[in-house]
Amino acid sequence: MLNIGCHLSVSKGLYSAALDAISIGANTFQFFTRNPRGGKAKEIDMEDINKLKQIMEEYKFAPIFAHGAYTMNLASNKKETREFANMILKDDLERLKLIPNTYYIFHPGSHVGQGSETGIELIVNALNEAIDENNNTIVLLEGMSGKGTEIGRSMEELKAIIDGVNYNENLGICIDSCHLYSSGYDIVNDLDGVLEEIDKIIGLDRVKAVHLNDSKVEFNSNKDRHEVIGKGTIGLEAIINIINHPLLKNLPFNLETPNELDGYKKEIEMLRKEYR
Ligand SMILES: [Zn+2]
Fold first, then answer.
1. How far is the CA of 142 from the centre of ligand 1 (A)?
2. Which of 130, 154, 194, 239 has its CB surrounded by the most CB atoms within 10 Å?
3. Which structural domain, as residue segments, surrounds residue 42?
């Protein structure tokens, strides 16, 4: 079965989001651990988490994605910004110990002019502070489009972060079809070649999750503009190849396309029909 869902609001709690997911034919979903622009996370509600646990089992959910705040920049050139980022990273991971079957996904960060080597070092230091031998949560670095001074635009950068982390058994990557295409990985004309390269540099066993998006911008543009499935530069055929590729087809996919619930429902229905 295709494990697919989309980004959903958890303003009414995780259980409510799981019900929304079920109502649109999804068996996974993604949520922000806190306001995407940063700020305080909500109090932990164990009743909500227990109800989530039950319904995820009942409906055979694939792992769900907890996405870190966009403002969390572990590679910032400002000490206060880094300290805030380090604090929310630790807090997110602490909270996720309570939520079952969840992958933590975050944007590695932006070096803001310090150079990618320094940026990578700062990210590695933060992860080494946050992840100890007791960490059981799968933590995934998201591959980025490479806009501005973003780190994670290449497999080499992601690999350098993974290699620097002491307890990296549960550290992997989330690939985003839009970001891959924008950062110069031609998943439209050479998906096999891209996967081979990921395997050679990082190892496909580290790829645990996929963000499935079409793109509003051209190949190798280093821009990050998601489009609804089939309406963008990647196109429906390439997206169908991704969900059916033998090396990817069993992973959980979450859509982050510009849609309301109804639009997501249509995309999920369509992709389920195309799954072989
Ligand atoms: Zn993301």
1. 6
2. 239
3. 4-274
